[in-house]
TrEMBL record:
Residues 1-242 form the HECT domain. SUPFAM superfamilies: Hect, E3 ligase catalytic domain. Keywords: Ligase, Transferase, Ubl conjugation pathway. Pfam families: HECT (PF00632). One of its GO terms (biological process) is glucose homeostasis. It comes from Mystacornis crossleyi. PANTHER family: E3 UBIQUITIN-PROTEIN LIGASE HECTD4-RELATED (PTHR46435). One of its GO terms (molecular function) is ubiquitin-protein transferase activity. This is HECD4 ligase. It comes from the Eukaryota.
């Protein structure tokens, strides 16, 4: 999906400090209401707020190949299908020959990690063939491996520690994963109506002025990519907040950066 996850591997002290700083950046983004353009999988936000991962949905989002692989083993109805599947996997160089039948391909209790290393799914897994009796255990072990990798406890502990140095972690219990993502990252697209509602006109300009109407008409013809470039030019950031304190406050409630966006006449003498 073109999204990122935390690399699920042991981390050095220097990397732990970087994750800690990353958590601080998340906290600053929330407190300052300046969104970070982060495209992280939902599993990251679920783990951050302490919500358990869905072994079906989150696996499918993070690793569709492994999800399909596990489903094939879970949906096998007889030993003939299992042999055919092992033969198919053998043709992709993911299986070895069965010790009982040298010419019969089989899978072992190993599987590649997200970083590409071959991992034993149980003690002595390299020497345990997958058969009809243990195929479900094999599929569950692969699913469990991916869930542990997506939760990435070492990395996430450092991120939460950094976040907790900026905002109280107790606040996370009041937010859903989606709310946490929106508060931190804003919307991945530019809501032009929201931008228009948070624009101020200075020194006698009005929203009904012809050139102001031309301005908004031009923006309405922009693609999302072009609107993002405009926000980058006007506000020096890639996303806008998805909400503003003025939504729940009075008319004098302070806006958050980059609002209100100001449109003013040019400096110098009046001309055509």
């Amino acid at each position: 999906q073109g999204k990122y996850i935390l690399t699920p591997s042991p981390i050095t002290y220097a990397e732990e400090q970087l994750f800690h700083f990353f958590g601080q950046l998340l906290g600053i983004a929330i407190r300052a209401d300046v969104p970070l353009p982060l495209d992280l999988l939902p599993s990251f936000w679920k783990t951050l707020v302490g919500e358990p991962l869905d072994p079906d949905v989150d696996l499918q989002e993070a690793d569709i190949l492994t999800y399909n692989y596990v489903k094939k083993f879970e949906n096998i109805s007889d030993e003939t299908e299992l042999e055919a599947l092992c033969a198919e996997i053998a043709s992709q160089h993911l299986a070895t020959e069965s010790p009982d039948c040298p010419n019969k391909p089989c899978c072992k209790f190993t599987y590649p990690s997200l970083t590409g290393e071959e991992v034993e799914l149980c003690p002595r897994g390299r020497h345990i063939p997958v058969g009809w009796e243990n195929k479900d255990v094999y599929a569950a072990a692969i699913r469990s491996l991916r869930m542990r990798e997506l939760q990435s406890p070492e990395c996430m502990t450092a991120v939460r520690a950094g976040l907790g140095s900026i905002i109280p972690l107790q606040l996370l219990t009041t937010l859903t994963p989606l709310e946490m993502e929106l508060r931190t990252c804003g919307l991945p697209y530019i809501n032009l109506e929201f931008l228009k509602a948070h624009t101020m006109y200075q020194v006698g300009l009005m929203e009904t002025d012809q050139h102001i109407e031309f301005f908004w008409s031009a923006l309405e013809m922009f693609t999302q990519e072009e609107l993002c470039k405009f926000i980058k030019f006007a506000c020096n950031q890639e996303r806008i907040p998805f909400t503003c304190p003025c939504k729940d406050g009075g008319p004098d409630t302070a806006h958050v950066p980059p609002y209100p966006m100001k449109i003013a006449p040019p400096d110098g003498a009046a001309g055509t």
